[in-house]
Every structure is written in C-alpha cells, then in structure tokens.
Design goal:
CATH topology: Helix Hairpins
Structural class: mainly alpha
Strand content: under 5%
CATH architecture: Orthogonal Bundle
Number of helices: 4
Order of helices and strands: HHHH
Distance between the termini: 91 Å
Length: about 140
C-alpha cells in the first residue's frame, strides 16, 4: 500500500509542478493546491498507515493498544487550513490582477506595471490668491 501511495504522491507532485509552470494564473493556483495535497498525502503516508506499532507508550514501558498516530493528523489538518487560506488569498489577488490588467495570462501582462501615482495632499491645497483676488475680511 505504501508503494502505491508513493507513486500517487509522485504523480500529484508532478502534476502540481507542471500546472505551476503554465502561463495562466488560474492553472498556477490549481497546481499549487494539487502540490499542497501531495505534501499532505506524503505526511500522512510517512506517519504510518497501519496501526501495528502504537504511537503512545505508558510510563512503565508497556504498550497501549494500537491506535492512530495523532501527529500526522494534526499536521495535515493545519496544512489544510493554511492551504485554504492561501487559496482564498490567491483567488482575490488574481481577481484584482484581472481587474487591473485585463488578463490572467502571465505572458500577456506587461513587464513593468506602473500605476498612476496617487494624488499628493500637497497638490490638493489651493495656491494662494493674488492680492487683487483676495476678499477683505
């Protein structure tokens, strides 16, 4: 079973890297998610699939009954939450890039994107009026 999962992890990693090298940003995001799932499956496989050996030992050296190893489960759950947060951030980032640039293709994006500078507060202050234009108080 471990050999099958090793090939599955390798295949998912290969597909993830391939998609991350594509020029379209949505394909990059999907590749990132697939690569994250490959890493989660690798952690799960490394944490032993079977329960032949218990992960916990009593103080007197006696073994508890075989139970699931909680460490890989906690690591994978944390990685899933972080991956979801990064995916949500990527979706919003790519949405704003598409609004600003009009495309999600990395090849069609301009190399140097210089947005118009924000108006300075100094520019908003009116110039002093000449002596003739001033109204006496």
């Amino acid at each position: 079973m471990e050999v099958l999962l090793a090939f599955l992890v390798g295949g998912l990693a290969a597909v993830g890297v391939y998609l991350m090298l594509r020029p379209h940003l949505i394909q990059f995001l999907v590749g990132f998610l697939v690569l994250g799932n490959a890493a989660n499956l690798l952690i799960f496989t490394a944490g032993r699939l079977g329960s032949q050996f218990p992960p916990l030992v009593q103080r007197d050296g006696g073994l508890l009954e075989p139970i699931a190893n909680p460490l890989p489960q906690a690591l994978i759950l944390t990685a899933i939450v972080i991956g979801f947060g990064l995916a949500a951030f990527g979706i919003v980032l790519f949405y704003r890039a598409e609004q600003g640039l009009g495309t999600l293709s990395a090849e069609a994006m301009p190399e140097v994107f210089e947005p118009a500078p924000a108006p300075s507060p100094v520019d908003q202050v009116e110039a002093p009026r000449s002596e003739k234009e001033r109204v006496p108080a």
